[in-house]
Amino acid sequence: MMNRKFIAGIIVFGSLWGFAECIIGSLLRDVNLPAGAIMTGIFAIGLMTLSRSSFKQPGMQTGIGLVAGALRFFNPFGGCFICSAIAIMAEGLLFDLIWTGFSLDLKKTQTITIQASLGITSTYLIYIGGYIITQILTPVFSSAGFYLENLIVFIPQILACGLLAALLGVATVPIVFSLKKLNIALQDPLYYPVTIGTSMFCWMFVIVNTIFILGI
Amino acid sequence: MRKDQLLPIFALLILFIACTSSLYVYASQATTDTLLVNKQYYTINQLFSFTKPRLLNDSNSMGIALDDLMVKTGVSHPEQHIYILKGVDGYEKTVTWENMKNGLLTKGRESIFLDLPKAFNVKNIVEIEVK
To answer: Residue ranges of the domains in chain B?
Structure first.
């Protein structure tokens, strides 16, 4: 029973993240805002922190990243969608590794200092980690190939652009922990209808939006 | 010491790295009106004056053909080289001759390739190096 709940959790959190990337991320790019840093610093880190602190299960965020990345792949608009999909998947995996590496599942409540530090550390590392991984994998999957020197010269720029994401993460993580204290939880009979309904809405919205834009 | 108690130290270190990198990037950025193509400087208008235009229907993008640009700027045996497109912010991408045959340079100095992901769209190009 727990496994089904866990999988439904992965699907709903991944769908919400993917939906935000496709719809809100595209809108942010359209108005020339730094969509990548904003999406990671607010939505990605917020949803992954909420899911991890709720389920306390290693591996969950890797799954969430895979679902969100798959959904982003269905929406070929707004920037490099292959790069975005790869970055999202990498971010999920990196969050999982950071959370497990710092043994954050062991303690129920964290001090505000630890929460803020977690916000900076995890947001910055997943953002620049995702950025670097996508800079490697996107050329690998293309006909041009990967050249290490292209990445090395751009490292200072990547390290710099993670700053905004980190500054957003320092607020997002404590906010999520504060919301958790409200103890808002879905009743068991409502859990599956709500998670499945939300996930279906996210996927249908993105697919219909893609079809609409393509004019099929 | 528990592992999570190390987080504030990591956070401070990260902020230091991110701020230092931002200062470095800001200090090292320079604007220029010219492009260095195959070791020679040109303005974008000069390049547009002698290179044949290209239109990519898929992306509705217009510009000059990158393969023709290389030939016109004196690259011999172009298929034997690789090409590094460098942006003003340090972003660079290396592409093959086959990619150049499907690519264009816009008036806004951005590269666009029909056969490559958007990650290869280098903005504000300042140099095209032939290797």
So the answer is: 1-30, 34-130
DSSP A78: S
Q: What pLDDT digit, counting tens, does each position of A42-67 carry? A: 999 999 999 998 888 899 999 999 99
Gap between the Cα atoms of A75 and B119, Å rounded: 16
3-state helix, strand, coil in chain A (%, to 5): 80, 0, 20
Q: Which of B78, B69, B57, B60 is nearest to B105 (CA)?
A: B69
Q: Which residues of chain A approach chain B closer than 8 Å at the C-beta?
A: 79-83, 101-104, 107, 110, 113-114, 116-118, 120-121, 124-125, 134-135, 138-139, 141-145, 147, 149-150, 153-154, 156-157, 159-160, 162-163, 166
pLDDT reported for residue A107: 65
The residue type found at A20 is A
Q: Where are the domains of chain A?
A: 2-214
How close A118 gets to chain B, by Cα (Å)? 6
* Torsion sign across C-alpha atoms B87, B91, B97, B101: negative
Q: What is the 3-state secondary structure (H, E, C) of chain B?
A: CCHHHHHHHHHHHHHHHHHHHHHHHHHHCCCCCEEEECCEEEEHHHHHHHCCEEEECCCCEEEEEHHHHHHHCCCCCHHHCCEEEEECCCCEEEECHHHHCCEEECCCCCEEECCCCHHHCCCCEEEEEEC
Is this model's pTM higher than 0.90 or not? no
CATH fold of B34-130 reads Sulfite Oxidase; Chain A, domain 2 (3.90.420)
Q: Which ranges of chain A have pLDDT less than 50?
A: none
Tell me the ipTM for this assembly: 0.83
